[in-house]
Amino acid sequence: MYNSSAAGGAANSISGSRLFLYEVEGLRQNQETDRMDYPIRKSGSVFITVPYARMNQEMQRITRMGGRIVSIRPLNGDNGVGVAANGKIASSSEPVTTTSAEASKPMTQAKEKKKDVPVNIYRPNAPFVGKCLSNEKLVGEGGIGIVQHIKFDLRGGDLKYLEGQSIGIIPDGVDSNGKPHKLRLYSIASTRHGDDMDDQTVSLCVRQLEYKHPETGETVYGVCSTFLCNLQPGAEVKITGPVGKEMLLPDDPEANIIMMATGTGIAPFRAYLWRMFKDYERARNTDYQFNGFAWLIFGIPTTPNILYRDELEAIAKEYPNNFRLTYAISREQKNPEGGRMYIQHRVAEHADEIWKLVKEEKTHVYICGLKGMEDGIDAAMTEAAAKEGVVWKDYQRSIKERWHVETY
Fold first, then answer.
1. CA nearest 244: which of 350, 105, 77?
2. Is 186 a known active-site residue?
3. C-alpha neighbours within 13 Å on the C-beta side of residue 76
4. Along the 408 residues of the chain, how does pLDDT read in single tens digits?
5. pTM
6. Is 406 an annotated catalytic residue?
7. In CATH, which of 3.20.20.30, 3.40.50.80, 3.30.1330.30, 3.30.450.20 is domain 256-407?
8. Of these residues, 43, 91, 166, 187, which one is catalytic?
9. Which of 55, 78, 86, 176 has its CA at a distance of 20 to 30 angstroms from the CA of residue 377?
10. Is 187 a catalytic residue?
């Protein structure tokens, strides 16, 4: 977790406080920590920047949250930049807060280094002020919840980004303590050229967070997700970032790209697929003509909740040899045991085929969405690998540069 309690005070001056980087596994998140604005994620390892004066307190907090500290090492603070617990680069003097259901972003397992990636062009203390260009409904009639595709105008600024990165949004207003709301991070749902192909927009896929308060039973709505879902065209919005290097696509146009998503976890995969297959993108990206194999396994509750359905199915129809689309519709389809069909059941169904692909060095796997699917995916891969006498967890660690996880 990277917030004012863990990185305030002395940490506001790098010269006045040594910083340490904690690598932590197993942090959990629930509705209570959502309500308290804790940015706790489980996605392989998470990395937390901690000032020396807070080391003991942070160790105790991590233990309370079910985490295990894997390593602690000094952080070179010559530029005031650290790695936040949600996996995004953050200034040590600028706290970042996220909530799980509002699509905050964690650290992925991949450690592959990327060069020439734009990061932190705009920070929380000096955000870019863009405008909402459009706010479109994505859930069809009879679907569950509110999900919007929101496009922002970036003209007048220098914000550039790549597919797989995220931006921060600072909602208007103040919190219960009268302080400005802290930012939330959202995966970018558009390619680097933007939906208008003019390099001047960025788009998000946002679900309005709604849940029952664990004590009062009152319906609670997410601050930032509600702010975004209600934005009107022309409204101003404060944007930070971009952040993230771990969910980027490989440069190899012959790669195999396996994508597993639930709900708004489709956001980065929309960006990937548009870059790979949209005619206008292919015409623009003369140095990247995807000719590999892409497979999206998409978990949603009902058919009206299939986000971007028409476009996804159009790509599958036009590129049958290069793109495969598999749905897991939990409230309409049954798994082999007669229960609801979730994404982990689809993975189990195709586990041998996925395992065969994973063994190829050109295959990258991306998982984005609810963390509940991770155990089922691991179980399916464990069974498939065991047929060849391979211990899945050991093999998974050996391909961490190709196994990218972003769950909440």
1. 105
2. yes
3. 2
4. 223 333 333 333 333 346 677 777 766 544 443 333 433 333 455 667 777 667 777 777 777 776 777 677 775 433 333 333 333 333 333 333 333 334 333 333 334 445 589 999 999 999 999 999 999 999 999 999 999 999 999 999 999 999 999 999 999 998 888 999 999 999 999 999 999 999 999 999 999 998 888 888 888 889 999 999 999 999 999 999 999 988 999 999 999 999 999 999 999 999 999 999 999 999 999 999 999 999 999 999 999 999 999 999 999 999 999 999 999 999 999 999 999 999 999 999 999 999 999 999 999 999 999 888 999 999 999 999 999 999 999 999 999 999 999 888
5. 0.73
6. yes
7. 3.40.50.80
8. 187
9. 86
10. yes
